[in-house]
Automatic annotation (TrEMBL):
Its EC number is 4.2.1.136, 5.1.99.6. Keywords: ATP-binding, Isomerase, Lyase, Metal-binding, Multifunctional enzyme, NAD, NADP, Nucleotide-binding, Potassium. K(+) binds at residues 62, 118, 154. It catalyses: (6S)-NADHX + ADP = AMP + phosphate + NADH + H(+); (6R)-NADHX = (6S)-NADHX; (6R)-NADPHX = (6S)-NADPHX; (6S)-NADPHX + ADP = AMP + phosphate + NADPH + H(+). It comes from the Bacteria. Residues 208-457 form the YjeF C-terminal domain. The lineage of its organism: Bacteria, Pseudomonadati, Pseudomonadota, Alphaproteobacteria, Sphingomonadales. Gene3D superfamilies: 3.40.1190.20, YjeF N-terminal domain. Bifunctional enzyme that catalyzes the epimerization of the S- and R-forms of NAD(P)HX and the dehydration of the S-form of NAD(P)HX at the expense of ADP, which is converted to AMP. This allows the repair of both epimers of NAD(P)HX, a damaged form of NAD(P)H that is a result of enzymatic or heat-dependent hydration. Catalyzes the epimerization of the S- and R-forms of NAD(P)HX, a damaged form of NAD(P)H that is a result of enzymatic or heat-dependent hydration. This is a prerequisite for the S-specific NAD(P)H-hydrate dehydratase to allow the repair of both epimers of NAD(P)HX. Its cofactor is K(+); Mg(2+). This is Bifunctional NAD(P)H-hydrate repair enzyme. PANTHER family: ATP-DEPENDENT (S)-NAD(P)H-HYDRATE DEHYDRATASE, ATP-DEPENDENT (S)-NAD(P)H-HYDRATE DEHYDRATASE FAMILY MEMBER. (6S)-NADPHX binds at residues 61-65, 122-128, 151, 241, 294, 342, 405. Homotetramer.
Amino acid sequence: MIPIAGTPVLTAAEMRAAEDAAIAAGTSVDTLMQRAGAGVADAVRRLAGVNDVLILCGPGNNGGDGYVAAARLHAAGRSVRVAASGEPRTPAAIAARALWTGAVEPLATAAPAPVLVDALFGTGLSRALDAETGAALGRLARQANLTIAVDVPSGVATDDGTVFGEVPAFHVTLALGAAKPAHLLQPAAARCGTVRVIPIGIPTDSATQILARPDLTAPPVDAHKFTRGMVAVVRGRMAGAAQLAASAAMHAGAGYVTLLGATIPSAPHALVRRRLDAEALADPRIGALLIGPGLGRDDDACASLEQALATDHPLVVDGDALHLVTPERLCDRHAPLILTPHAGEFAALFGAPAGSKLAAARDAAVRAQATIVFKGPDTVIAAPDGHAIIAGEANSWLSTAGSGDVLAGAIAALLAGGRRALDAAAAGVWLHGEAARRLGPAFIADDLAVALAGARA
C-alpha cells in the first residue's frame, strides 16, 4: 500500500490505456488481475487482523480481483467468505472465480462480517446500483467494523466524483494501479476514506498529480528581503481583507510586503504602506502583485484592477477582482498569472462548470492563459499546459471568513519567491491546509495567517 500524496491520477480512460499498454507489452489480463488481487489480499490481511472477512464480488473484473483476494486470504489461513451479485461475465473474472474453492453466497442474503471488502464494481460505472445490490451493500457496510473498497466504492463515478444514489462511506479504498479523480473530488472522495495505491505493474504517467508536501527550505545564508520576494497587495474597500492577505504573505515567507492604498493604522509595523499610484506599481522589485481581497466592485475597484493588469508583474487575482474581468482580458498578459476562484467566482468568470471539476479547471486555465486554483472542499490547480494538481479533502474549519484572503497572500509570497506559477499555487494550497491542520478547530483567518509561519517551518 502506497500513500497517495505526490502520485499520479488517472481517469478511467487513461487507466484502460495503461492496462492496454501493459497487455501489448506482454502482460496478460489474468496476470494483472492476479497482481491486483494479491495486493488487495495483502492489504486486507494487514488491516483486518484476526477478524473474519466478507468479500463482495461483482460480475466484472473488479469482482475477479475480489475472488483472487479471497483465494489468497484463504490460502494464508484467514477466515474469509464470498458473496456475489451474480455470476462472473468476463473471461478473466471467470478464471478468477475458479480459484475460489469455497461457497459463494447470494449477496442479498449474505450475513455480515466484521470486515467488509467491496469488489462489486470498479471504474467506469455510470449509473446507480440496482435497488437490491445497493440495499445489500448498505446493510453489510453498516454492520461491519471496517469497510474496504477495491479501486473505487461501488456507486461512484470515477472521473468526476459523482455519487449515484446511496453509497456508504468506506474506511479505506485500495486504488488499483493509480489514484482516480473520484478519490479526491467531492462528493465521492468523502465515501473513500483513507486511500492507498496498490501497484499492479503498469505505466501510470499522467499530467495530473496529487498535492504533496512542497520543498520549503529556509532562505540561503546570503538572502536578503528582496531576494526572498517582494509582494505588493492592492487595498480596496474592505481594508481588513487586504491586511489579512498581506499578513499571510509575510508569514508565508515573503521578505518584503507592501500595502498599496490608504493606510491602515492597526497594520503591523513590518508592513510597508504606500499610495496606489503609477510609481508604486512600477517598482521593479515587486515579485508578485495581489489584487482582489476586499477590492469591491465599484468604479474605483475597476480602475485599480486595470492598473494592476497593465503592469508586467506576476499577478495573483482573487475575490472581487474575479467578477470584474473576462478570460479574454486576462489572456492578453504575458507575465505569470494565478487566479484563485471559489465556485461562485469561477461561475462568474467562466460560466457554470460542466463535467468534472478537473476538466473545468483545465479548460479555464487555457481560456485565461493562467494558473487556476479552483478552491473548495476539493481544490484543483490547473496550468495552461494541461498539468494539474488535485488537493484532497480540505479541513472543514477553513470555512471561515478571510481564509481565501490568507490563501491568496500565501500564494503571492511563494510566487514572489521565484517559483513557477503552478508550483507556487500548489505550495500555497499545501501550506494553507497544513496551517489549518495545526490550529485545530474553530480558528479565525487572523490565526490562520500567523500559523503559516509554523507550517512552513
